[in-house]
Design brief:
Number of helices: 6
Strand content: under 5%
Oligomer: single chain
Helix content: over 70%
Shape: elongated
Largest sheet: none
Distance between the termini: 59 Å
């Protein structure tokens, strides 16, 4: 019976080290440009709650390395790590805030155009979308909701320093 408990104890002690070794393997693959293999190594760790792996998966999505570039998906992974206090993820999420805001603005602009078509009236002057150097893409309602939630999370994990 004592042997069984010792075995369980040693397995529990080895698990964090094993996860760290697996994460390091992913880092080596990433540095070698083997982005798909790094993704495959990090994803199970990220899904199990490892904040460094969650952040790393976010980087892959932000940069479009081995996956289609998707700022919203990247922000979701960053948010998972940021909720655990992982500072690089907080900073990455803060850096994506303007793009998340742009998604919200694009959704609002699309809704105003839709309303204008319905009643034939232009939107009120205070409702004009902000000028952007990038062409605004039409965001879905779910994307806008996600962007809004991520911006709200950012306000709690990284309040602006004044």
């Amino acid at each position: 019976m004592m042997l069984r408990w010792l075995l369980i104890f040693f397995c529990m002690m080895a698990a964090p080290q094993a996860a760290a070794d697996v994460f390091t393997k992913g880092q080596l693959l990433y540095r070698a440009g083997a982005y798909q293999q790094a993704h495959d190594v990090w994803l199970p760790l990220a899904e199990d709650g490892n904040p460094a792996a969650q952040y790393s998966i976010g980087v892959l999505f932000e940069r479009g390395e081995s996956v289609d570039a998707d700022v919203l998906v990247a922000a979701k992974w960053y948010a998972r790590a940021a909720r655990q206090g992982y500072q690089p993820a907080v900073e990455a999420l803060r850096a994506l805030a303007p793009e998340l805001q742009e998604l919200l603005d694009a959704k609002r602009a699309g809704e105003r155009k839709s309303e204008m078509k319905k009643d034939g009236q232009p939107p009120a002057p205070h409702q004009k979308p902000a000028k952007s150097t990038k062409p605004a893409k039409q965001a879905s309602r779910a994307q806008a909701d996600d962007a809004r939630a991520l911006l709200a999370l950012l306000a709690t994990v990284a309040p602006e320093q004044r």
